[in-house]
Specification:
Length: 319
């Protein structure tokens, strides 16, 4: 129950066999950092920055307003690292009336996330400048959503260079950032090793990874029964991405709903995951699962689940 969970706030997230697990928060607005700290998060793994932009119609936040919001979030985390995802609008998160998503044939396959940012360079550069400036006041990681192509990676890096040059030209101070890629398209998961050449860390967005792997619109209730995190193809992509990052010695996290669902905690630990980012309300329940887990006993079982044609049944044989 809740009061027992609350006692875990200051307990380190360490497994029975001594593995340290990083529990991070997903936030939508700077004020959510309060809930993140209250739940004992050791950082923000996903700040969905599009929430600063949504419902604003034609008055998108400018550089100064964004800069202040990012600094507020940093201050809210009192020195703990903050991962800001660049704007991820489109599909289930329409920006405003001028982006008539319903008019597109397949909004989830259309102009969204990094595709939109690269198509709107002035907007993207404004956001990157605001983030770089905020990085002068604390540890910021930048996370890029929905990448699939190396050309998009190169263009994104180019944009970051341009944003830095623009700040240099204005003589404005900015800081270093770590750069990460969201793995949420099967193409990205299948080429995770390539992504790792360009990025400091990866974050797996299982909500979209499941949608795109299984061709199930995550917002369409008529096919919701087929939206299956335990589909062998989804598990394979997850396992391969975690493996690739671990092999290359770079951090990898899961920030989709699976990370905050205690039904999957042991499986993700068994697959080698050591960093989870979730809604603050889930953190203590996941921590409880972690402090009761022995990862050394989960590895073989996770491989069995992975190889099973009925992973849900194999899951039930939990050690
Ligand atoms: C995801 O796709 O899993 C994710 C974390 O991003 P969002 O839910 O914001 O699309
Ligand atoms: Mg996503």
């Amino acid at each position: 129950d809740r009061s027992r969970l609350l006692r875990l706030v200051n307990t380190p997230a360490v497994t029975l066999d001594g593995e340290k697990i990083e529990l991070l928060a997903n936030i939508e607005l700077p004020k959510d950092t309060e809930a993140a700290l209250a739940a004992g998060a050791v950082g923000v793994g996903l700040f969905r920055s599009e929430f600063l932009f949504m419902g604003r119609n034609h008055h998108l936040p400018g550089e100064e307003e964004q800069y202040q919001a990012y600094v507020r979030a940093l201050e809210g985390m009192r020195g703990l690292p903050l991962t800001i995802r660049t704007i991820d609008v489109g599909a289930d998160k329409p920006l405003n009336d001028s982006v008539p998503d319903a008019a597109h044939l397949n909004p989830a396959l259309g102009m969204r996330a990094i595709r939109w940012s690269l198509a709107e360079p002035a907007m993207f550069l404004t956001q990157l400048r605001a983030i770089l400036r905020a990085a002068a006041s604390g540890r910021i990681h930048v996370l890029i959503p929905m990448l699939a192509h190396v050309s998009e990676i190169r263009q994104t890096l180019q944009m970051l260079d341009t944003a830095r040059s623009q700040l240099d030209a204005r003589g404005v101070a900015y800081g270093e950032v770590d750069l990460g890629a969201m793995i949420e398209v099967p193409a990205a998961a299948l080429t995770a090793r390539l992504f790792l050449k360009y990025f400091d860390f990866l974050s797996i967005g299982t909500n979209d990874l499941i949608q795109y792997t299984l061709a199930i619109d995550r917002a369409d209730e008529s096919v919701a029964h087929l939206y299956d995190p335990m589909h062998p193809a989804v598990l394979q992509l997850l396992a391969d991405t975690i493996r690739a990052a671990r092999d290359m010695g770079k951090p990898v996290s899961v920030c989709g709903e699976m990370a905050g669902d205690t039904a999957f905690t042991k499986l993700l630990l068994g697959l080698g995951l050591r960093s989870f980012s979730m809604h603050p309300a889930q953190i203590l329940a996941v921590k409880q699962e972690i402090v009761r887990s022995d990862t050394s006993k989960l590895v073989d079982w996770a491989q069995q689940v992975l190889q099973s044609e009925d992973p849900a049944a194999a899951m039930a044989q939990k050690p």
